């Protein structure tokens, strides 16, 4: 059975019942159909004085085409925890609609460990991304309109930092010249579109405490610079309050359920390179009030996702993770050990052990944040006993345990052992979380710290213009912000072909950007795309409705 | 009290109760919050064999800055009909989000005759326009992607007819050059964005019978032409089925309520110039099965809106309207009679009678479709008894009745007299609807028929290129389609300053476009904007959330 067939066969409970189990009354739950709901702001406010549950991060080795199953493991672990009697909820990101029509298909877990309704979650869901797109583009329209009617703020047309967004893979919109066609259309200038998940509004929504904080942060967005190089903010053209109006439902967490009817918060979805790649702070904090264990994930591998989760999200939101799970697969580690994709079906213990250094590095890195670590081996049918034994032996040499998990095939029942051990680890009180650099470190030193301690770079370089820009950000008062490094997800280095555990490489910072509303400085290394394209044969060509009105082609 | 204050004070019933009153079970109603819902396709299918209620059109004189209150009267009339014991429902369009942030504020009726929840309806509502935007832009992305990967269909880059859309007033996007930036971004070409309500996908959604018909029509969209000038359709690049997936909820009618808790279908919102300007056929047909009287409206004045309602929507959907209400105000007629806006507060019977020729012309025109007509005088506090008496005398000279309506101030209680008379008219069986031209008339002759019989033009002209284009559309097999004339809404002529009832003017057709999926030929006269701009002081600057989280600045 395909993921979508399993999802469609799910025996979903009415979303009101899922809410009830968390103590949410029907009036506090705003339904979207019968299986999705948003949780009202007043209810969230009422939780403030309750104690927090324990926060568990699921992260992974560097992604390979072989697949790791990070969301699948996150969802499975919650089903496993509930099976062993622990009250646990899922907190994951919303998938972006655009990429579903490219190569991706869908993203809501897989096999017997999914959140449902899978089709809705992958398409319009509760409209959050559409609201973010609207708010972002309202600001863009107001910027060009401001210039059109006299440019009172004296915005430098060459230094406008705000582009537009669309939730679609559309390479033709990456670079454009707009406002053509003469006087009545404005002043022509170069600009372009990013995909919605790359919007600073997305990052803001995911880091804001509440609606008031969201509005404040929207006002702080730097939209560009004046001729005298001073910054112009969204509030200077009075855009932030109307943007907040457009986001008043989007900031409310979405409640859905796993295949085993456990509560899942699916909310927010910032990019994990130029943004921090975690679900919303609002959802995580609400979940911590409503459950004893909250299992969340961070984007890409632990070098990008976990680092940003710790240094940006946890630091800024005051979250203290109690345990971390690193997901690995035998197949992916064999690829890291040099096995070609087509050969992954063949047993190769030596390659596995060679590739396991990638896992080892992540284990060490995550541990350096003061969070106890366990490894989840996401089982594939082609894995052999010898390979699994070798992997367990490797991790035990690192002083961490690796647990074989069969949640993809068996659901929560296949991951009870991991659930028991994660619960014990979270309950142990061993965690002593701390970010990897202090707030008051200079910006470039923060970049160096992450690059050297996490990526294991030998040197970090940047052109004079980039260093000057960082100095300018510090002069503007943004020196205390954390850094958000955009780097390829496929390697610890900036070269996507360097698998395993490379070290001593050079990390070159080619550009830095200010996300003043979100509250971080983006440092771009290598070739980072903020607007994907569609492949030669896009998934859209085969996505369709069948005779019963069900969606085919999402997987 | 402002409209938004009245709307906020409304005692709304849970939407399930509104549905129940129409015989819709909870399982067939998909809630969006507690006061909005979509009606499921299976339920709609089950209604097929029920008899139809009576369809009543609300249209108006040409709009002036003085305001007419067409939606207000549509809503008020339904409240009035229910008060006198008739089972009636509202069918109106969804407002577009973009213009709310410009000058418009909001559009869901006014005073004591509104549909609620007003803020939601004016903002994201149930996400229909976002879904239409996504489907439209997916096709656009697939077109540029098709070209990028080899252009198997041999699309002529100069003859691509499909632009992109956004639901925002953004003049900088009207004309652009996209796909700049080198090889990896595609082939640069001139293009641009329209506002979502101008999308052919919007028109298709509003004219489709059901989801299968929608998909079929999406496939028929002509996206451009090959080098050999043959048309390329959306289905040729396999985009239509994925577009239908994105629209599967959007095509379901939205149920909300009036301030007096009567059911209202608010669904679809095509432009009333380059599209047909009516709510969806799906909603109208569902409403006719569920109620005895369905009151609907058409965009702009009767010259544009009612003509398109009759010649496009009713013709194609097989609807047979039973009565028509033409809304007029003393103020607007005085403006037509030459009174300046600042002077409208002063009694001026002579100007009223001079301006009433505008109303007279519309009365005659609407009657020519075989539909009995009544005039609703939408009362303003500044109207004098003498003015109202003069207006009634004028219409009685035309053989039609004019009824003073106080629904804005009093709700349904203020419009009972009109309700009684409209009900009697609809029940009388006097209507004998027929479109104004037959399907098999040549396209240019159809344009001439509307221009001469409705606009009262003396001559209709077009350049050779336009006539050639029409001949080409006929050769392609589209000669049987109705025409959709885009003309200024402010005058019967193409000159927006010619008020009253001008005749003998020239109508010049400067461009024609094929909407093969929607099923009409657009003929553009004068200067029609498909992407509005924001004003110097956009409403967005004052739209905000107050301390209680309520939206301020929509009105």
Any chance you could write out the topology, listing elements then pairs?
Two copies of one chain form a homodimer.
Chain A: H1 3-9, H2 15-21, E1 29-31, E2 37-39, H3 41-45, E3 54-60, H4 70-83, E4 88-92, H5 97-104, E5 109-110, E6 113-116, H6 118-122, H7 128-148, E7 155-160, E8 164-166, E9 176-178, E10 189-191, E11 193-195, H8 200-207, H9 211-220, E12 222-226, E13 231-233, H10 240-246, E14 254-258, E15 263-266, H11 281-290, E16 293-297, H12 305-317, E17 323-328, H13 330-336, H14 349-367, E18 373-378, H15 385-397, E19 402-405, H16 407-410, H17 416-427, H18 443-453, E20 459-462, H19 464-478, E21 483-486, E22 506-515, E23 520-525, E24 544-545, E25 551-552
Helix pairs in contact in A: 4-17, 7-8, 7-10, 9-10, 13-14, 14-15
Radius of gyration of chain A: 23 Å
Number of DSSP-assigned strands of chain A: 25
Question: What proportion of the residues of chain A is helical, as a percent range?
Answer: 25-40%
Number of domain modules of chain A: 3
Number of helices of chain A: 19
Distance between the termini of chain A: 11 Å
> Under CATH, the topology of the largest domain in chain A is which?
Rossmann fold
Extract low-pLDDT stretches of chain A. none
Going by CATH, the architecture of the largest domain in chain A would be 3-Layer(aba) Sandwich
Large-scale geometry of chain A: globular
């Amino acid at each position: 059975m395909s993921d979508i067939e399993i999802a469609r066969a799910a025996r979903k409970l009415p979303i009101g019942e899922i809410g009830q189990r968390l103590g949410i009354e029907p009036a506090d739950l705003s339904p979207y159909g019968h299986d999705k709901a948003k949780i009202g702001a007043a209810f969230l406010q009422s939780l403030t004085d309750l104690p927090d549950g324990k926060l568990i991060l699921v992260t992974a080795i560097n992604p390979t085409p072989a697949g790791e199953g990070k969301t699948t493991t996150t969802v499975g672990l919650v089903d496993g925890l509930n099976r062993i009697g622990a009250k646990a909820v899922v907190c994951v990101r919303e998938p972006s609609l655009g990429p579903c029509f490219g190569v991706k298909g869908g993203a809501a877990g897989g096999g017997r460990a999914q959140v449902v309704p899978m089709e809705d979650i992958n398409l319009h869901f509760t409209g959050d991304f559409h609201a973010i797109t609207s708010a972002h583009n309202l600001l863009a329209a107001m910027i060009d309109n401001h210039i059109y009617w006299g440019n009172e703020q004296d915005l430098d047309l060459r230094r406008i930092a705000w582009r537009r967004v669309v939730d679609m893979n559309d390479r033709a919109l990456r670079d454009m010249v707009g406002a053509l066609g003469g006087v009545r259309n404005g002043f022509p200038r170069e600009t372009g579109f990013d995909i919605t998940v790359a919007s600073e509004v997305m990052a803001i929504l995911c880091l804001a405490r509440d609606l008031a904080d969201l509005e404040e942060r929207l006002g702080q967005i730097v939209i560009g610079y004046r001729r005298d190089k001073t910054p112009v903010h969204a509030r200077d053209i009075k855009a932030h309050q109307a943007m907040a109006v457009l986001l008043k439902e989007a900031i409310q967490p979405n409640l859905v359920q796993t295949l085993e009817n456990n509560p899942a918060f699916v909310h927010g979805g910032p990019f994990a390179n130029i943004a921090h790649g975690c679900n919303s702070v609002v959802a995580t904090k609400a979940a911590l009030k409503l459950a004893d264990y909250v299992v969340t994930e961070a984007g890409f591998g632990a070098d990008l996702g976990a680092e940003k989760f710790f240094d940006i999200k946890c630091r800024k939101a005051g979250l203290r993770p109690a345990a971390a799970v690193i997901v690995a697969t035998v197949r992916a580690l064999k690829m890291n050990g040099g096995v070609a994709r087509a050969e992954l079906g063949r047993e190769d213990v030596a390659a596995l052990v060679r590739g396991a250094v990638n896992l080892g590095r992540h284990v060490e890195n995550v541990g350096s944040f003061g969070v106890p670590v366990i490894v989840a081996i996401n089982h594939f049918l082609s894995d052999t006993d010898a390979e699994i034994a070798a992997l367990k032996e490797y991790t035990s040499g690192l002083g961490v345990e690796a647990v074989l998990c069969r949640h993809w095939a068996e659901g929560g029942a296949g991951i009870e052992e991991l659930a028991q051990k994660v619960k014990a680890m979270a309950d142990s009180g061993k965690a002593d979380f701390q970010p990897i650099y202090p707030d008051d470190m200079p910006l470039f030193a923060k970049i160096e710290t992450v690059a050297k301690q996490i990526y294991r770079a030998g040197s970090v370089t940047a052109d004079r213009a980039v260093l000057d820009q960082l100095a300018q950000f510090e002069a503007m008062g943004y020196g205390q912000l954390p850094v958000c490094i955009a780097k390829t997800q496929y390697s610890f280095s900036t070269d996507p072909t360097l698998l395993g555990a490379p070290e001593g490489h050079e990390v070159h910072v080619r550009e830095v950007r200010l996300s003043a509303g979100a509250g971080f400085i983006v440092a771009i290394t290598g070739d980072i795309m903020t607007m994907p394209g569609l492949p030669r044969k896009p998934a859209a060509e085969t996505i369709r409705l069948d005779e019963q009105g069900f969606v085919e082609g999402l997987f």
